[in-house]
Structure formats: structure tokens, C-alpha cells
């Protein structure tokens, strides 16, 4: 196996496949190594796919990529134990010729994207785990060591796309372990139902989809969110909370999912379904503060391994696809210019990311994860207050409306105090800037 490549890509998820495809299409000799049985076999997502990140790689991907439904309606539900207060946005504009968001099943999509990389000329090896980076006497990364006999492979540059655990980078001393307060543990089930039942329950046509993002007391006082996404013939339902909150509260994630399934607003949507898959996975949710060094002598890091998830907008796959593509484009540019893959030259990748939405968005929300984590009232007190306010306002019981408004205002003041309310508003406004 002691062969030399232009580039080695570790991992065949969104970031790894985007990088491998871009490198191979430009004619580089690229080896991709994936520990799973096949690309996508180990990968978990909700999953909403953002089309523009795929279009930047493969403009006509819609012709044969495995896509479930295009999203025409987005709901945001804030739950207390018996109700939800929500917003819906549904638009006929999302029924466009080239829809903007799709639901997908990762095992199928990753396999398809990886095939495009193979067809472009990449060599892909599965069921092989990269253990660590190989370095020369100056510390420059010159290849990887895998869990195979004679498993040393060499390359000018290694593209690390090994996902949230990022063990290869950790073992090789180029990044730290993800802090427990910067990672969410998410659990997910697939609920199978006939297509017509899903269409009827969500008031949609055959290929149209609805996504529901869920906040509130269903996370049992921990910082986290739930989701419900419609696929063609299944519903993906999941919930994730910050790992250190799980540890502190001693709550079993599986119990949290049971609580979500039993909620009176969720149960009717999945009634009669057959559950066929259960998965658990980490999500890097520390935002910009969790981002490590992005490149060095002979290496770059992309996707979840680089902590590229915008938790505020539930985006991760697009940041992974984009960072993998941008890393590869800069490697191709260096290769074509005959320049070495030195730390100095690979900074091109960092600069390109700075100019892209990836780092711009993460920087915009840099204080949001910590602000929410330190102020649990946003996921406990406020959802309850909102539900009580809505119920009080809508119930027609002979109490005049002005009195109702005063009661609602009083309930907020009683729960948080005037200073607390102002302080909370300032905290959110600052973190959202
Ligand atoms: P991954 O997709 O995790 O891929 C990493 C790959 O590396 C895997 O194939 C793994 O097997 C391989 N690997 C790991 N270690 C090694 C090794 N040592 N050697 C060889 N191979 C290795 N994002 C969205 O945009 N929309 C959503 O709806 C959404 N929902 C989500 C719901 C859940 C429950 C979760 C967990 C995440 C969700 N995300 C979502 C985030 C999104 O899934 C990730 O941001 C995205 O998958 C990151 O892609 P990646 O390529 O960096 O990592």
C-alpha cells in the first residue's frame, strides 16, 4: 500500500465526497479512505439538504441524485408539555423548477455522491480506518497510517473529513477533543408510513415536504432541539441536546425521544408508523468558538471535523460540502501552480473560507451557543410562558381583553422580573447580531 498520491481524503461523508470529487475531476491522483462498509453507512443527518451547496459541485445533480421531497413548508414549534406555539412558512415559490431544499436519506445520498467521485477517477477504499497522520522529521504531514497490514499511504496533502469525533486530528496533535458543552448528542428514528398518508397528514402533494423544528420543554431543561422531517415514505423524528447537559441531568437520550414521540402535538403525526431505524450521533454545536486550526503543513480540515455547523439555522451538510469543495479547489490551484502544500500556501483555504458564508455565518453567531447554554430560561421558562399566554388570550371566558393582556404581562414579570426580561432581550439581541 506504500503508494504516493497527490491527495488523501479521510472520510466519505459530505465534506470528504465534495473534496474527493473536486480533486478527481481536476485530474489529481486522489485516494479516499472510509471506515464504513460503504460511503454513508455510518452517517446520520435529519436530513435537509441545501441544493446550492450541491449545485456548486454538480449543477445538474437533480437528474439522478436520490432526493426524497423538496421542502415547501417550514414550521417552528415551541412546545410546553401539552401545547405548542408555532410559526409556519409555506410558499408556492418553493415549488420552483430547481427547488432550494430537499429531504434526503444519507446512506443513499452519500453513496450516490461518492459514485460521482469514483466516476471522476478517485480511488476509494472502504472498511478501512485511518489511525493517524504520518509526519516527516520537520513535522510536515506526509500521509496516513491505516488499520491494515502495511497500511502506510503517502500524499502531498491530507484532507481531514472524518466528522465530529475528529480522532485522526486529535491523535496527531493538530486539534483538541470537542468540549462536552460544544457537542450535542442527537437520537433519531425513521417512521415509515405510506406516501398518501404523509401527504394527507401534512397537506402536501407527492414530492412536497414539510419540516418542523422543535424547541421547548420537551428537552427537559437541557439546551437542544427536536426535528420532524417528511421523506417520501417515512418521517424522520429526532432530538438532540448538549452532551454536558445530558451528563448533568442524567437523562437517557432514548427517553427524551420517547417523550417527544408521546407529545400530543407529535403523536398524531406518526400514528400507525413502523419504526425501522434508530441512530445516535454527535453534532458539533459550539459554533465559531469550537473551530480549530484549519490547515497546516501538508493538511487541511473540513466539515464537522472543523466544527462547521450553524446550529442556529440547523445547517451542517452545506458547510461540509462547501468547505470540502473549497479545500480541494485551493489544493488544485497550488498543484497547478507547482507550489508545495506548505502551511503558508494552504492558508489559501483559510482565506477562501473567510470570504464564504461558512466562516461569516459562524462568526455572526459566535456568542449564541454559549449564551443559550448559560441561560436555560430560553428553553424552560419562556416556552411555558408563551403557551400560557396564547391559551389565556385565545380562551373566550368573559374576561375582557385588557385584563387578559395585563395578566399575561404580569406572568412574564413574575417569572423573570423586569430586569430579567430586559436582560434576556439584550442577551439574545447581542448574540444574534
Ligand atoms: P460525516 O458526514 O460525519 O462524515 C464523516 C465520515 O468520515 C464518515 O463517513 C465516517 O465513517 C468517516 N470516518 C470517520 N473517522 C474515520 C477514520 N478514522 N478513517 C476513515 N473514515 C473515517 N445538517 C444539515 O445540513 N441538515 C440537517 O437536516 C441536519 N440534521 C442533522 C441531524 C442529526 C441527527 C445529526 C447528527 C446531524 C445533522 N446535520 C444536519 C449535520 C450534518 O449531518 C453534518 O454537518 C454533516 O454530515 C457533516 O459532514 P462531514 O462529511 O463533515 O461528516
From TrEMBL:
Which intervals hold domain FAD-binding?
6-189
Any idea where the FixC-like C-terminal domain is?
A: 368-433
Keyword tRNA-binding: yes or no?
A: no
Cofactor(s) needed: FAD
| Keywords, in A-Z order | FAD, Flavoprotein, Oxidoreductase
- Coiled-coil spans are none
GO MF term set: FAD binding; oxidoreductase activity
UniProt KW Flavoprotein keyword: yes
Q: Which InterPro entries does UniProt cross-reference here?
A: FAD-bd (IPR002938), FAD/NAD-bd_sf (IPR036188), FixC-like (IPR039651), FixC-like_C (IPR059103)
> Family per UniProt?
Belongs to the ETF-QO/FixC family.
The record's function comment reads: Could be required for the formation of a functional nitrogenase Fe protein. Probably accepts electrons from FixA/FixB and reduces a quinone.
Q: What is this protein called?
A: Protein FixC
Q: Which organism is it from?
A: Pararhodospirillum oryzae
Amino acid at each position: 500500500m506504500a503508494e504516493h498520491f497527490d491527495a488523501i481524503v479521510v472520510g466519505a461523508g459530505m465534506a470528504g465526497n465534495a473534496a474527493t470529487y473536486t480533486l478527481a475531476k481536476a485530474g489529481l491522483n486522489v485516494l479516499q479512505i472510509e471506515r464504513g462498509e460503504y460511503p454513508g453507512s455510518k452517517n446520520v443527518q435529519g436530513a435537509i439538504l441545501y441544493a446550492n451547496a450541491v449545485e456548486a459541485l454538480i449543477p445538474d445533480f437533480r437528474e439522478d441524485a436520490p432526493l426524497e421531497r423538496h421542502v415547501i413548508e417550514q414550521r417552528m414549534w415551541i412546545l410546553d408539555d401539552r401545547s405548542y406555539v408555532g410559526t409556519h412558512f409555506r410558499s408556492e415559490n418553493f415549488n420552483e423548477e430547481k427547488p432550494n431544499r430537499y429531504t434526503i436519506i444519507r446512506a443513499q445520498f452519500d453513496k450516490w455522491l461518492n459514485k460521482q467521485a469514483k466516476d471522476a477517477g478517485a480511488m476509494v477504499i472502504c472498511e478501512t480506518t485511518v489511525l493517524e497522520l504520518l509526519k516527516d522529521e520537520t513535522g510536515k504531514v506526509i500521509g496516513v497510517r491505516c488499520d491494515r497490514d502495511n497500511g502506510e499511504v503517502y500524499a502531498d496533502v491530507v484532507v481531514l473529513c472524518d466528522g465530529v469525533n475528529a480522532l485522526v486530528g486529535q491523535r496527531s496533535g493538530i486539534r483538541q477533543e470537542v468540549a462536552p458543552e460544544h457537542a450535542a448528542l442527537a437520537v433519531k428514528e425513521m417512521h415509515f408510513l405510506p406516501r398518501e398518508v404523509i401527504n394527507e397528514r401534512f397537506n402536501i402533494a407527492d414530492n412536497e415536504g414539510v419540516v418542523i423544528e422543535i424547541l421547548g420543554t420537551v428537552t427537559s431543561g437541557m439546551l437542544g432541539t427536536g426535528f420532524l422531517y417528511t421523506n417520501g415514505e417515512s418521517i424522520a423524528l429526532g432530538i438532540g441536546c448538549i452532551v454536558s447537559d445530558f451528563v448533568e441531568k442524567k437523562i437517557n437520550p432514548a427517553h427524551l425521544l420517547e417523550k417527544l414521540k408521546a407529545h400530543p402535538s407529535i403523536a398524531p403525526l406518526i400514528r400507525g408508523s413502523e419504526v425501522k431505524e434508530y441512530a445516535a450521533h454527535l453534532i458539533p454545536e459550539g459554533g465559531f468558538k469550537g473551530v480549530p486550526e484549519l490547515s497546516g503543513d501538508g493538511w487541511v480540515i473540513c466539515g464537522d471535523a472543523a466544527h462547521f455547523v450553524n446550529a442556529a439555522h440547523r445547517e451542517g451538510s452545506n458547510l461540509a460540502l462547501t468547505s470540502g469543495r473549497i479545500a480541494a479547489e485551493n489544493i488544485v490551484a497550488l498543484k497547478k501552480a507547482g507550489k508545495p502544500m506548505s502551511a503558508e500556501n494552504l492558508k489559501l483555504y483559510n482565506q477562501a473560507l473567510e470570504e464564504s458564508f461558512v466562516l461569516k455565518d459562524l462568526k455572526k453567531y459566535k456568542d449564541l451557543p454559549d449564551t443559550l447554554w448559560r441561560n436555560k430560561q430560553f428553553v424552560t421558562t419562556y416556552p411555558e410562558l408563551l403557551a400560557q399566554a396564547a391559551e389565556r388570550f385565545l380562551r373566550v371566558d368573559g374576561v375582557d381583553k385588557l385584563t387578559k393582556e395585563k395578566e399575561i404581562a404580569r406572568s412574564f414579570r413574575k417569572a423573570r422580573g423586569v430586569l430579567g426580561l430586559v436582560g434576556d432581550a439584550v442577551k439574545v439581541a447581542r448574540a444574534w447580531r
